[in-house]
Amino acid sequence: MHISGAIALVTGANRGLGRQFATQLLQRGASKVYATARRPELVNIPGVEVLPLDITDPVSVAAAAAAAGDVNLLVNNAGAAFGADLVTGDLDLLRQEMDTNFWGTLSVIRAFAPQLAGGAILNVLSVLSWIGFQGSGGYAASKSAQWSLTNGVRLELAGQGTQVTGLHLGAADTDMTAGYDVPKADPAVIVKAGLDGLEAGDWEVLADEWSRIAKAGLTADPRAYYDNPYDLLQQ
Fold first, then answer.
1. Residue 180 catalytic?
2. 230 has catalytic annotation
3. Nearest Cα residue to 69 out of 24, 27, 123, 119
4. What would the 3-class secondary structure string for 121-154 be?
5. Among 32, 34, 139, 225, the one annotated catalytic
6. How far, in Å, CA of 142 to CA of 152, rounded?
7. Backbone phi, then psi, for 49, in 5-degree steps?
8. Residues 173-222: pLDDT tens digits?
9. Which one is predicted more confidently, 224 or 154?
10. Around Cβ 117, how many Cβ atoms within 10 Å?
11. Which of 34, 143, 192, 225 does the annotation list as catalytic?
């Protein structure tokens, strides 16, 4: 996928990684970038076209797809994380995480897929696709489902020539991780890695050391993680 000349749409573009995606896409020569958000008035990126989009609302998704019928690069960045445990956490919060991270991502892909022939999709995933922490059970389950979704969509859209790339990362220094006292990557560095991988045709981008360690550990005894997963990721 060549970003120069592409017409891109970024979900959740009002802050954090999404803002970086919209900015860097323009810097790399995208001819148009639709920056979308549930609250479009919060998007203040020079040079973008702003659209309202709530990825959990089918009507909103359909309206965005109709308004942006020229898109050939879709960046699924919007996500939700509430810190809910699976057994004792608020079920409404758990459902919101799954509705956003899995069903919302799938809804946007389904709406835009017909116009992405020969184009590309970049899904923002997580190290928590592969490993969980206390307090992240619901989010981890939703990101694991989103990882599987990414692999499945890649197979289903291969026939129309749509490239599908998954971007995995640990913690980036964004509002979503503000309450966690852990080492955090610069969002600009994470986004650059994702866009570099997209242009290289990579199916999967491991953007930081956390994601590389976690992915490599999938072949190991899982008890090595869950005795103390945070310590493992600091090695």
1. no
2. no
3. 119
4. EEEECCHHHCCCCCCCHHHHHHHHHHHHHHHHHH
5. 139
6. 15
7. -105, 125
8. 556 654 555 566 788 999 999 999 999 999 999 999 889 888 988 888 87
9. 154
10. 12
11. 143
